[in-house]
Write a structure and sequence with these properties.
The structure is a single chain. β2 and β3 form a beta hairpin. It contains no helices and 5 strands.
Length: about 60
């Protein structure tokens, strides 16, 4: 998984009814775009994440 600052990290819900969590990558802490990432959620909360298989990166150039 590779991400850049400004990309969106989408963590898909794992159970029925659980919504996806979307955050913005604000810092890439790994080398060459690799995790971990410092992310900011829509409510302003920040966290350090090493995304698992339930996550996808939506790159800036892919968003409209």
């Amino acid at each position: 998984m590779h991400a850049s600052v400004g990309d969106r990290l989408v963590q898909h819900g794992r159970v029925v009814g659980q919504h996806d969590q979307v955050s913005e990558v604000v810092e890439v802490m790994g080398t060459e775009g690799n995790p971990p990432y410092r992310v900011r959620f829509e409510d302003g909360h920040e966290a350090v994440m090493s995304p698992g298989p339930d996550c996808e990166v939506r790159h800036r150039e892919m968003r409209h």
